[in-house]
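Limitations
The structure tokens in this dataset are predictions for the assembled complex, not deposited experimental models. Users should treat interface geometry with appropriate caution, especially where small molecules or nucleic acid strands are included. An illustrative entry is reproduced here so readers can see what is and is not provided.
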Amino acid sequence: MKNNQIIGEIDYLLTTYCEGCYLKDLFRKEKGKLAAHNFCIHACTVGEEIREIGENLCSK
Ligand code: SF4
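Predicted assembly:
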């Protein structure tokens, strides 16, 4: 998959699921930014998918 496609998929997930996410806001307020970030990456299936897709980005 090309970088443009990968970025497009990530953007789709972010705008569809992450914008205005109640869970992220709640974690930020109650436990801070780092805890919210960790929740997104390790406990949310959307975050997990974003991370997996992002691993295919080429740095070239
Ligand atoms: S990764 Fe999950 S918890 Fe985090 S903002 Fe996106 S939908 Fe919300």
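Some entries come with short summary sentences. For this one: The mean pLDDT is 94.
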